[in-house]
Automatic annotation (TrEMBL), chains A, B:
Organism of this sequence: Actinomadura fulvescens
Pfam families on file: TetR_N
Source superkingdom: Bacteria
UniProt DNA-binding region: 33-52
TM stretches of this protein: none
SUPFAM superfamilies in alphabetical order: Homeodomain-like, Tetracyclin repressor-like, C-terminal domain
Alphabetical list of InterPro entries matching this protein: DNA-bd_HTH_TetR-type_CS (IPR023772), Homeodomain-like_sf (IPR009057), HTH-type_TetR-like_transc_reg (IPR050109), HTH_TetR (IPR001647), Tet_transcr_reg_TetR-rel_C_sf (IPR036271)
Residues of the HTH tetR-type domain: 10-70
Name by which UniProt lists this protein: TetR/AcrR family transcriptional regulator
tRNA processing listed as a keyword: no
Keywords (A to Z) from UniProt: DNA-binding, Transcription, Transcription regulation
Length: 216, 216
């Protein structure tokens, strides 16, 4: 019989990840030492090393455990007989995200994961998987909306998903950095845009005269 | 007469910021030493210290120099007699941002600035200013669109600005991490959403039963 049950191991693992998450949120991934994580978790170095060998592994595991939470929220929405209006879907997602922004919430360290993903290969893998899965889910939402006649029949679900996938990171950033946005405001803004006058047929490419491009 | 002209000083300053930007993009803000920045810039430690005393000051200055570029792009759009369609405005912004994502482009290190802003006070100041100014600009766009009758007369420009401010960071993230989105796709997605069926009048709050909230 195993001395340490699987359940016990899993609790330990989560306890270590919670501790790492709190430390990273407080002073940043790079400024946090493994010693501080041992202390925060109340475990010995040896006990922690049994589960994780580096901070990279810790942040990868934190990104990975967000996945089922995001999936559960999103599947719940897709499982409904009738899909809620798009502004409500986004607001639910934003509300879920907001609830995980407390001092030790996973979403508080999301921008650190994004930053690491731009130059650290293993973390890139974890974050790109999360982002890609989230976007695939938005593709399914867009397909449903199109099939239900709530988006035009020739709508490209991928293009819609690119926009919808963009919104949540920018919402997280505004809330963490400016501190003044909430899910209801986001919802109101989306409702207004969905209710606005459709744009006229468009010229093939963005207009020339883009100062920012000329300058660079 | 001053030995070193103001123009020379400014060129030097930009040269140092370019070097820091390349290093940060390649191996990350924390993993970059000041020695590496001296080497990359081709200047001595003493010469660099005359302009910047720390990596924090460097990243703050990098964020600050994005400001006039963003402002120029945005003012150009607002100065037009007729505002372009919203999808084109966002696409122009996204095109501008895409043009600065090269190996040493400022946008490549934007996520590192966002991450630092969540726990480093001086950098928080620089990033929140950039984000707040960008959002104020989107408020002005939303007001113009409303006054031109392209958004409903009772539209809240702030709520619209919260959504529009959200889109670009999420676009940057998808492009840097997944590498497969461009301004034209973003534009197409926005066009579809703007052309979609308006949502029905909505209940006061997001529906209950949010699994993600229940779980936390």
């Amino acid at each position: 019989m195993p001395r340490v049950s699987e359940e016990h191991r899993e609790r330990r693992r989560q306890q270590i990840l919670d501790a790492a998450q709190s430390c990273f949120a407080r002073k940043g991934f790079h400024e946090t030492s493994l010693q501080e994580i041992f202390r925060e978790s109340g475990l010995s170095a040896g006990a922690v090393y049994r589960y994780f060998r580096s901070k990279d592994e810790l942040i990868g595991a934190i990104a990975a455990r967000s996945q089922p939470l995001v999936a559960a929220l999103l599947e719940e929405i897709l499982d409904a007989d009738e899909l809620p209006p798009l502004d409500e879907i986004v607001a639910r997602f934003a509300t879920g995200v907001t609830g995980r922004m407390g001092p030790s919430g996973a979403v508080r360290i999301a921008p650190q994961g994004w930053a690491l993903a731009t130059y650290n290969r293993p973390i890139h893998l974890a974050i790109s998987e999360l982002l890609d899965n989230t976007r695939s889910w938005w593709v399914r939402v867009a397909e449903r909306l199109r099939d239900d006649g709530r988006l035009p029949p020739d709508a490209d679900p991928y293009a819609v998903a690119v926009v919808l996938t963009s919104i949540i990171p920018g919402f997280i950033l505004q809330r963490l950095v400016l501190g003044d946005v909430d899910a209801e405001t986001l919802r109101a803004g989306i409702r207004i845009l969905l209710s606005s006058e459709p744009p006229p047929p468009h010229a093939a490419h963005p207009a020339p005269g883009n100062i920012l491009n000329q300058a660079l």
